[in-house]
Amino acid sequence: MLSYCDARRVRLVSSNAFTLVELLVVIAIIGILVAMLLPAVAQVRETARRASCSNKVRQLALACQNYQSTWMRFPEGANIGQGAGWSAHILAQIDQQPLANSITLEDSSGAVTGSGSAGHWSDGNEATRTANERACETFLSIFRCPADPITNAIRSGGNPELIIDRVPSSYLACATGSTSVQARLIRRPGENQSRIQALRNGIIVPNQDARYFQTRDQFLRTRVALTDVDDGLSNTLMIGESVFDTSDYRGSNRGIDHFYIGSPQIDRLQELSEFLGSTNVELNLYHKNPDSVLDTLSQSRVEGLFSEMAMGFASWHAGGAVNFALGDGSTRLFQSDIDLELYRNLGNRKDGNVVLEF
């Protein structure tokens, strides 16, 4: 027989133990609390990513401002026929002076074909990469949004027209608020100079003064000084986010790609969208046309949309919010439903439509 003390111990142990039902209830409560906590954690992480991205576009805008203070003009958006993008010009302003010293901005070939040579950007040989090519293959975190899922390098193979392990960028400079067609920003023989010049109405615009253009009726020098920003820096967008997607669709490449420093494509009068964007393209157009929508459209319309998407600003942030920096270095977070007319006005430095509040 159990003594009185032994029996009391048994009762105490029995009364303090969890039953199976009680254990399941506790587990369920913990599960509910975790489920409630996860969205909050995800929201905090997204807020941190957005803040980091905003800081990067601000740094890039301030670097462009510092460049302007030194050279009395803003960096050229793309040196058409020579291959350099705006990001190449501000390397010194983002603490990348050694990288800036390593590259050749001018076309060293002396080409007279009117379409560049691309040789100083890429020779197509993995074993003998040019200094410019190696610069384009260098990962610079300031050009990458934390929310961007793209890999660090895009391997394009041994095609001499391409850079082998080029690093993508999450950001474009705003070149215009008036066109979604990048070809309209490039002057070709016989094309009206003043019309194209008028379309280059952003702060960071293309320039086309390679020496071989001068004898082929393609020369068009457009450089923006502080005094050319009629609407004011605080009313004109300078840098914004973009998405990257070169996946196949209906047997063709989407061609939505953005990079930094330089490009053999720009050297050959193509692909301004690698560096430059337009507010004439609806914000987040990429996300508004998923494959389910594209499947209902004609092939020509799909290709036209891809071309617009390549020039458009968009982001991978939750809810479609897109970070921008204005010419004065301040930042704004725009939503997909921003008024298109307002958005276009903000991309044009001299349309006279000054936006006091947005």
Question: Describe it for me?
Answer:
There is one protein chain. By secondary structure, the protein is an alpha+beta fold. The protein has one domain (35-347). Helix content is 33%, strand content 10%. A five-stranded mixed sheet has the order 9-4-6-10-11, with helices on both faces. Strands 1-5 form a two-stranded parallel ribbon. The longest helix is centred in the N-terminal third of the chain and has 52 residues, at 20-71. Mean pLDDT is 87; it is low at 10-14.
Which short descriptors sum up this protein?
two-stranded parallel ribbon; single chain; 358 residues; 11 strands; 10 helices; alpha+beta
Domain tally: 1
Separate helix tally: 10
Biggest sheet layout? 5 strands, mixed
Terminal Cα separation, in Å?
86 Å
Order of helices and strands: HHEHHHEEEHEEEEHEHHEEH
What's the count of strands? 11
Strand percentage lies at 5-15%
Given the helix and strand composition, which structural class is it?
alpha+beta
Average pLDDT taken over every residue = 87
Q: What shape does the CA trace take?
A: globular
Helix percentage range: 25-40%
Main-sheet strand order equals 9-4-6-10-11
* Unreliable sequence segments: 10-14
Radius of gyration: 27 Å
What secondary-structure arrangement, pairings included, does this model have?
Layout: H1 4-16, H2 20-71, E1 78-79, H3 86-89, H4 97-102, H5 131-136, E2 154-155, E3 165-166, E4 171-176, H6 193-199, E5 206-207, E6 237-241, E7 248-249, E8 252-253, H7 264-267, E9 276-278, H8 291-294, H9 299-311, E10 322-326, E11 331-334, H10 340-347
Parallel strand pairs: 1-5, 4-9
Antiparallel strand pairs: 2-3, 4-6, 6-10, 7-8, 10-11
